[in-house]
TrEMBL record, chain A:
Oxidoreductase in keyword set: yes
Organism: Nitratireductor pacificus pht-3B
Protein name: Carbon monoxide dehydrogenase
Keyword list, A-Z: FAD, Flavoprotein, Oxidoreductase
Ranges where the FAD-binding PCMH-type domain occurs: 1-177
InterPro entries: Diverse_Substr_Oxidored, FAD-bd_PCMH, FAD-bd_PCMH-like_sf, FAD-bd_PCMH_sub1, FAD-bd_PCMH_sub2, Mopterin_DH_FAD-bd
Pfam family, one: FAD_binding_5
UniProtKB/TrEMBL annotation, chain B:
GO molecular function: iron ion binding; oxidoreductase activity
Organism domain of life: Bacteria
Protein name: Molybdopterin binding aldehyde oxidase and xanthine dehydrogenase protein
Keywords assigned: Molybdenum, Oxidoreductase
UniProt lineage: Bacteria, Pseudomonadati, Pseudomonadota, Alphaproteobacteria, Hyphomicrobiales
Keyword Transmembrane helix: no
Stored InterPro entries: Ald_Oxase/Xan_DH_a/b (IPR000674), Ald_Oxase/Xan_DH_a/b_sf (IPR036856), Ald_Oxase/xanthine_DH-like (IPR016208), AldOxase/xan_DH_MoCoBD1 (IPR008274), AldOxase/xan_DH_MoCoBD2 (IPR046867), AldOxase/xan_DH_Mopterin-bd_sf (IPR037165)
Coiled coil: none
Domain Aldehyde oxidase/xanthine dehydrogenase a/b hammerhead span(s) in chain numbering: 30-139
UniProt-listed Pfam families: Ald_Xan_dh_C, MoCoBD_1, MoCoBD_2
Gene3D superfamilies: Aldehyde oxidase/xanthine dehydrogenase, a/b hammerhead (3.90.1170.50), Aldehyde oxidase/xanthine dehydrogenase, molybdopterin binding domain (3.30.365.10)
Length: 279, 799
């Protein structure tokens, strides 16, 4: 398949993008890395009048470190993070997860902002960034606002974008010195979209113990206080303490009706927690 | 009869048996190959097809906007074009007519309804969207077992049922019924797409000067395509030239005549410019999932000591909507009956097969053809018998394999196994893994909680089977003598012209190796010409693991003729008698000296005044046909052993070790054979673990991209450990056997048996490919003692 005929713009700054995407007389798609949009265009699943390529915008390629967070421009690629061109404030979590996204060719072009906004439930960033407590910053005609990553994703392939808004950056909090994380995903082959993801963060200095069941049918299922899954050995997260029954109830309450789906999600989280425990 | 020719590598390392680097790789690895999609002809336009979105529907109309009408072809334009009709001579076969563009009915998703022509593919697709399809949906036939039952919707109403062909064989079956061990299994393999790297593609143009339709199309069998195309279009075969350039994988898919080819040809004859269709991956997956879907109910009968007494089987193959040209809709299922007994010797056999029409694309012979399914079914049953008898599976196999002293051996279905030591292949493969250590490891359990298992499979593969075999099938194509032309050039080089096509088989290297073996001409100076009906002798093409035996044999025969002709001229130049000279390393050597082939060629072509009166007027050119001494086929064979780890919580399967011991007779180029085995193994792993095209109840294919249709990648295919035996074939040149397909045959069986070995403690047996994580977990969940699964939910279904 080949795309429909469309116009193409490659503006130099965000201010030039906003009027283009505010024009509701035509269908406009933002292209960040194009790794999902490209195939969707070719298969004519999207038939835009205009594609706005934002990879030429310097601001979106910036990274800024503050006292307690790092702010990553929306067009930073997975490979930028994998290769640590972006400073790591997550004790290795972001580079490790980045290195497992799809294939290197995809990582060279695919962007963090594009991935989150595409909102594929199986994608890695949504799950790990939700576990890390990251937020996204959006800019639109009315100015800027910030939203937690897990709230930004409204459902499968649906992000909380108001008309004329775009994602400009992702803010990831710095982890404490004793923080530990774990991430486990189930794929049938290297680079395939995940069938189940477990993500876990324990950060005693900041009082965080957070777990995520990812690669669901829709939004990730967040366990804001994961200590309840771990019982007495909460911080260590040892295998014996993991409450599989409770975990199963949580994913079932999260809408997962298929017992095999529940099983692999529960096991994925348990393994993520084990990984954190052994870190 | 002993193998002719050589058994040792020539001293210069270029002849038969040398692992010469591939000549074709110089262009292919530098990106200089020329595939159909690389061809640019002046004025060429692109084609997109309006395809049926429904699996089964009545066609009430195909409406084309008036402004586009002259650039859109619909069925009513093609009234003079014959449908594709591939009959079989087997009794009871019901033929189908596959229209070039559908009218009256569509019978599969993706069936062609209109062809749109534009400057670019994108614009052609815009036109497709403007074509209005008026289709009235009919109940889809998507399940081959249900399709066999009375009351099913019918694809071809005039048949009265959905069965292309039913076959039945019974050899003394009653005698097996009292056997003490009787195991019955329901076994199935999923429908697959062949998924070559390069899809189909065709450029068609009418050449006014030659008064000829020229079709550039990636084809395994250019001459057969020409014949089929001429018959559909009503052209003389001299009016069609088929050029098959570089081809990115065939596997059977590029062996058939496509309606697309006919439609483009018809248009090219009228429009005054070239037209091109390049299949995209979506078309390939949704309209071309055309292989492997088998279903077996199979019972093995055996003694308590594991001696096989009989096999009883009902096999059903989903043949899809039409009988495809030239292999027909029934090759696969009917072949099941004849090859199911595998490499075993047993006394009683019964098999009934059905080739069933469904609303899917026509089935094609994919690498290994029916053998991959057959091997999976038979080898799972052998393991089930072993478990029932309380024996190691390899011990049971060793008791039942045809023994070397029985060779040549006519098996229960009259297959003539030519040579080999099947038990030795299995013993060698088993020796490569430390079975007691694996058993001890299983006993102890793995630290990571996974379960390991070892499994094996053995098969023999009929290749290069010829006239006597195919005449019996009665399909449009029966191979006879395979011809080759050998022609010396004036500077002492050699051209070889063959009607088979090389698209991964490495024949641009291996056929020159054969000529070199006989003539001593440097392989670098031997040019293989193939893939063009204008320049090559008629051939049924590349299929059935036949090229090394048939085209190789033809090249050897033609080269020997060149040797004879050259010796005649050389003897004259040396003032000797022809029987006083010999051809040694590219020189004709006589009692008083020697003369090179280059000098002889120079004399023939450029100094004919120096030739004697009465010189053989054929010069230094020969076209000769070849058949093996016996044309019932070569039987290569291999034992595969897989060691796997199964994650009982996630259902993931990892291949820890993979061993292949194969016997292809004399190997022309062992490196090339290894390459064939690696590629086949990757496809076999795809069948075993990944590849599956599901259809819903309305006949819709459920995968349209490689995100949903999984192929194994580099990280999923282990580096196998290969070992070769070289039992010469008794009937072929050099003792060569066909090995092209074997790698794809045994992996589902070996991996399946390994998985079942790993899971036997849970009482779990998987009998369906691909063995997906979900199927593993479902099987564990169903087993009563599925203690390894975790509690995952309030209702605790998986406790």
């Amino acid at each position: 398949m080949k795309p429909v005929n469309f116009d193409y713009a490659r503006p130099k700054d965000v201010a030039d993008v906003l009027p283009l995407i505010a024009d509701d007389s035509r269908t406009v798609k933002i292209m960040a890395g194009g790794q999902s949009l490209g195939p969707m265009l070719n298969m004519r699943l999207v038939q835009p009048d205009l594609v706005v390529d934002i990879t030429g915008i310097e601001e979106l390629r910036q990274v800024e470190e503050t006292a307690d967070a790092i702010i990553i421009g929306g067009c930073i690629t997975h490979a930028d993070i994998e290769d640590r061109r972006v400073p790591d404030v997550t004790r290795g979590a972001l580079p490790a997860v980045a290195g497992g996204i799809a294939y290197r060719a995809v990582r060279n072009r695919g962007t963090i902002g594009g991935s989150i906004t595409h909102a594929d439930p199986s994608a890695d960033w949504i799950s790990i960034l939700s576990a890390l407590g990251a937020t996204v910053t959006l800019r639109g005609p009315g100015g800027s606002r910030s939203v937690a990553v897990e709230d930004y994703m409204l459902g499968a392939l649906e992000a909380d974008l108001q008309p004329g808004e775009m994602l400009v950056s992702v803010t990831v909090p710095k982890l404490g010195a004793s923080a530990r994380w774990g991430y486990y995903k189930s794929c049938r082959k290297t680079g395939e979209f995940a069938h189940a993801i477990g993500a876990f963060l324990v950060d005693p200095e900041r009082g965080v113990s957070r777990a995520v069941f990812g690669a669901t049918e829709s939004r990730p299922i967040i366990v804001p206080d994961a200590r309840r899954l771990l019982g007495e050995g909460a911080a260590r997260g040892s295998n014996g303490d993991f409450d599989s029954r409770l975990a199963g109830e949580l994913v079932e309450a999260g809408g997962m009706s298929d017992p095999i789906d529940r099983q692999i999600h529960v096991v994925a989280l348990r393994r993520a927690i084990q990984q954190a425990g052994s870190a | 009869m002993a193998a002719q020719g050589v058994t040792d590598r020539k001293a210069d390392g270029q002849g038969v048996g040398a692992s010469l680097l591939r000549k074709e790789d110089d262009r292919l690895l530098r990106g200089r190959g020329q595939f159909v999609a690389d061809i640019r002809l002046p004025g060429m336009k692109d084609v997109a097809f309006a395809r049926s979105p429904l699996a089964h529907a009545r066609v009430n109309g195909v409406r084309v906007p008036e402004a586009l009408r002259d650039r859109v072809v619909i069925a009513e334009d093609l009234k003079d074009v014959k449908p594709i009709r591939a009959v079989s001579g087997l009794a009871g076969f019901k033929p189908s007519d596959q229209p070039v563009l559908a009218f009256e009915k569509v019978r599969q998703v993706g069936e062609l309804l209109a062809m749109c022509v534009a400057d670019t593919r994108a614009e052609a697709e815009d036109m497709v969207e403007a074509v209005e399809l008026d289709l009235e949906e009919l109940p889809a036939v998507h399940d081959m077992l249900a399709a066999r039952k009375p009351g099913s919707a019918l694809l071809h109403e005039e048949w009265g049922d959905n069965v292309f062909l039913e076959t039945f064989v019974d050899v003394n079956f009653e005698a097996a019924l009292d056997a003490p061990i009787k195991v019955t299994r329901e076994i199935s393999t999923a429908r697959q797409s062949m998924a070559p790297m390069e899809g189909r593609g065709t450029v068609a143009v009418w050449d006014n000067r030659m008064e000829q339709l020229v079709l550039y199309t990636g084809s395994q069998m250019p001459h057969i395509v020409r014949t089929g195309l001429a018959e559909c279009l009503g052209l003389g075969q001299h009016q069609i030239r088929i050029v098959s350039p570089d081809v990115g994988g065939g596997f059977g898919y590029k062996g058939i005549l496509l309606p697309e080819d006919i439609c483009l040809s018809w248009y090219a004859m009228r429009c005054g410019h070239p037209v091109r269709w390049i299949e995209d991956r979506r078309e390939h997956l949704t309209a071309g999932a055309n292989c492997r879907e088998h279903h077996y109910i199979i019972t093995g009968y055996a003694d308590r000591d594991g001696r096989l007494l009989g096999i009883d089987c009902e096999a059903t193959v989903d043949s899809g909507a039409y009988s495809s040209y030239p292999f027909s809709a029934c090759l696969e299922a009917a072949q099941v009956a004849s090859i199911l007994p595998g490499p075993y010797d047993f006394p009683s056999y019964r098999c009934r097969t059905w080739s069933v029409a469904t609303n899917k694309c026509p089935i094609l012979p994919y690498r290994g053809v029916a053998r991959t399914g057959v091997c999976y079914a038979m080898e799972l049953v052998m393991d089930a018998i072993a478990r029932e008898a309380g024996l190691e599976p390899h011990e049971v196999r060793l008791k039942n394999l045809v023994r070397p002293e029985q060779m040549p051996f006519d098996n229960i279905t009259k297959k003539h196994f030519d040579s080999g030591d099947y038990p030795e292949a299995l013993r060698r493969a088993m020796a490569a893994v430390d079975l007691p250590a694996i058993r001890a490891r299983q006993e102890a359990g793995e630290p990571d909680g996974r379960l390991i298992g070892v499994g094996h499979a053995i098969y023999c593969e009929q290749g290069a089977h010829g006239t006597s075999v195919y005449a019996g099938w009665g399909i449009p194509m029966v191979p006879g003598h395979e011809q080759a032309t050998a022609r010396m050039t004036p500077d002492g080089g050699l051209e070889l012209r063959v009607g088979v096509h090389s698209h991964g088989q490495s024949m641009e290297t291996t056929l020159p190796q054969i000529a070199h073996e006989i003539l001593g001409i440097d392989v670098a100076r031997i040019k293989l010409v193939h893939g063009d009906t204008e320049y090559t002798p008629y051939s049924t093409g590349s299929w059935g693991s036949r090229c090394a035996v048939m085209a190789g044999g033809a090249v050897a025969t033609a080269s020997r003729e060149i040797a004879k002709l050259a010796k005649g001229i050389g003897a004259h130049l040396l003032q000797a008698k022809p029987d006083q000279v010999d051809l040694v390393d590219g020189r004709v050597v006589g009692p008083s000296g020697s003369v090179s082939l280059a000098e002889i060629a120079h004399t023939w072509y450029r100094l004919p005044q120096n030739l004697p009166e009465g010189v053989d007027p054929r010069g230094l050119e020969a076209t000769i046909g070849h058949k093996p001494v016996r044309d019932s086929g070569t039987f290569s064979y291999a034992a595969h052993v897989a060691v796997v780890a199964v994650d009982p919580e996630m259902g993931d399967i990892e291949i820890l070790d993979y061993i292949i011991v194969e016997d292809g007779g004399k190997l022309i180029n062992p490196m090339v054979v290894d390459g064939q085995i690696y590629g086949g193994l990757a496809q076999g792993i795809g069948t075993a673990l990944y590849e599956e095209m599901n259809f819903d109840a309305s006949g819709q294919p459920l995968a349209s991209t490689f995100a949903d249709y999984l192929l194994p990648g580099p990280t999923e295919v282990p580096a196998p450990r290969l070992d070769h035996m070289e039992t010469l074939a008794p009937y072929t040149e050099f003792g060569v056997k066909g090995i092209g397909e074997g790698g794809a045959i045994a992996p589902p069986a070996a991996i399946g048996n390994a998985v079942n070995d790993a899971l036997k403690g849970l009482g779990v047996e998987l009998t369906q490919t691909p063995m997906t994580p979900r199927r593993v977990l479902e099987a564990i969940g169903k087993a009563s003692n599925g203690a390894a699964s975790v509690n995952a939910g309030a209702q605790g279904e998986l406790v």
